[in-house]
Amino acid sequence: MLELRLVQGSLLKKVLESIKDLVNDANFDCSSSGFSLQAMDSSHVALVALLLRSEGFEHYRCDRNISMGMNLGNMSKMLKCAGNDDIITIKADDGSDTVTFMFESPTQDKISDFEMKLMDIDSEHLGIPEAEYQSIVTMPSAEFARICKDLSGIGDTVVISVTKEGVKFSTRGDIGTANIVCRQNTTVDKPEEATVINMSEPVSLTFALRYMNSFTKATTLSNTVTISLSSELPVVVEYKIAEMGYIRFYLAPKIEEDDEGETKPEV
Amino acid sequence: MLELRLVQGSLLKKVLESIKDLVNDANFDCSSSGFSLQAMDSSHVALVALLLRSEGFEHYRCDRNISMGMNLGNMSKMLKCAGNDDIITIKADDGSDTVTFMFESPTQDKISDFEMKLMDIDSEHLGIPEAEYQSIVTMPSAEFARICKDLSGIGDTVVISVTKEGVKFSTRGDIGTANIVCRQNTTVDKPEEATVINMSEPVSLTFALRYMNSFTKATTLSNTVTISLSSELPVVVEYKIAEMGYIRFYLAPKIEEDDEGETKPEV
Amino acid sequence: MLELRLVQGSLLKKVLESIKDLVNDANFDCSSSGFSLQAMDSSHVALVALLLRSEGFEHYRCDRNISMGMNLGNMSKMLKCAGNDDIITIKADDGSDTVTFMFESPTQDKISDFEMKLMDIDSEHLGIPEAEYQSIVTMPSAEFARICKDLSGIGDTVVISVTKEGVKFSTRGDIGTANIVCRQNTTVDKPEEATVINMSEPVSLTFALRYMNSFTKATTLSNTVTISLSSELPVVVEYKIAEMGYIRFYLAPKIEEDDEGETKPEV
């Protein structure tokens, strides 16, 4: 028996909107510690990891660990029917092949039950080792989203270069080149407007803008984003979810593109 | 000679937006009592009835009953050119094959005349008998529109079931099932937020969501909608138009679908 | 060496949005007096003339006159990456085949450099003689834009007729005819809401609505528009740009259409 009651139901709506275009089908894993998901995107390039800790739910009952395979497009269609102020409860009976999403309006005048069929999905849970990163940038999530969108009008890849002074985002394409520098800045009115660089070593890595733009759909979940970079590791783009968890996107750097951008002689 | 001056011209704009996708061509009937329309939708399944009583016009002159055939798409194109605060006057000379829409801006600085050709349209006026309905639901029109839209993401038909406690909207489709219950609720801050059930007998009827969604285009005309249901009759979905009339949509229940939804054994 | 620093960078963004659909490639001419452009639209029917006077820039350095050929679509893509509050600096080295747009956020925390390749564009600068116009209409730019848009739902051309009392915009199409009269009105709360007619002689001229609608993309640049008309001359549709210049659109009247509209006997 599973029954998870989330007062701020809009969080779950936003989570689905953040990942449904990246991942088609995925197993949601439910244990006593929380509700989580780990999935590769459909082209097996990027990895998404979601965690909603049990403490974040008003009521959390999960008698035994279960894994529920869901089509995220269909799940999103159902969650879109929840109002932004609705309480959402996820329910499943032991051994059932369906999951029920219950939406309660704040006044309790409107109660909706949406029942969705579960799927069998083969997936192996990847162990993601804890790592030390050479550079960690925390910045306003809307700013990061704007930069990825702007650069994708010029080129296909972004070089992210971190120094003590700031982080530079660069691209080049047929119509020209672009460099955007965000300086470290901690003297701001609101903490979420700060740009903070934690750097042990400067890094410069190249990524496909298509994926970065996809990750920024999670911008609605958090005012800030944290980008962790190391030359030998996939970048981690993390959005915190209120007090209860996070959504993390992992993407390997493009080796060739980086070389090309860095060492190709000017013609 | 016809001359109908409507101070709140936006009402006529909204009426056209409500019905132009449902009905292509229709006769507007003008008599001393009011300006009205009755028309089947283009697939001859739903019926629209509009009434704007003469008392609602600032000036109303209709020397003799006339019926003016109009293409609603073209009429809508012209009314879209009226500002939302404009006064609209409908004018036609006796025997003329055109109608003129005059728009006056509130300051009288901008005066527009749009002249449209009339059409000959065969149509017989159906007598719609007054009927007693088993269940009459009045609810916020935006809520009803939201429910029809949400359910059409899941299935093609909606079962509307009324009991003393409330009204249930259900659907089923390939991805699962949905049930939305709105409870009777009269203790609200504003009267238009109430959900009121007037029931002599419980009913459960099935309708095509496509038409319901089309009817909800009239949501801009009124904060509330009234849904009148009887097992042997078409449903009536009514939106009041200010103090001056109404727009009513009639749709026959789907017999087969209802049976299927109600009695099909679970597999 | 060229370096032009424009504090209100959004003006340049709006200029590009105003003309990029009308003109594909154009030479921007830079001299000590200002930054200007003159170009025919791609079908060689309308002419655009832009002037941004040097006094309007915070810093203006132009060592020698140069003409820089740019693709306006690409330039617009780059300028879209500037924030609305950003300071924009246009930079070019002598003899360089590129131009650089630098965007500085108001807080100086984000600095962007966009470098674009220049093009060789053949163009001859047309001398536009100063002329006396028979009728000059100044009116709210949003009203003019609304009228052009509304009429293009009915017909393809607009007849603009000016008398002492006001200006009339007329069209006719398959579904009917439309006449919109704006009366002279100088008793308004705000000067930019006035409609002012300066007339030495009444005029009535016909223009293609397609071009008029294109010109009204400059509506964001100014609250008012000035339309200068003479029977033997192209109309001038002018939008002032803050204190620093203007954008002017020139379009020749349609001779045949005018005749047809004016003298064709009613059938």
Automatic annotation (TrEMBL), chains A, B, C:
Its main location: nucleus. Keywords: DNA replication, DNA-binding, Nucleus. GO terms for biological process: leading strand elongation; mismatch repair; regulation of DNA replication; translesion synthesis. One of its GO terms (molecular function) is DNA polymerase processivity factor activity. It is found in: Nucleus. One of its GO terms (cellular component) is PCNA complex. Transmembrane segments: none annotated. Residues 1-125 form the Proliferating cell nuclear antigen PCNA N-terminal domain. SUPFAM superfamilies: DNA clamp. Residues 127-254 form the Proliferating cell nuclear antigen PCNA C-terminal domain. This protein is an auxiliary protein of DNA polymerase delta and is involved in the control of eukaryotic DNA replication by increasing the polymerase's processivity during elongation of the leading strand. HAMAP family: DNApol_clamp_arch. Belongs to the PCNA family. This is DNA sliding clamp PCNA.
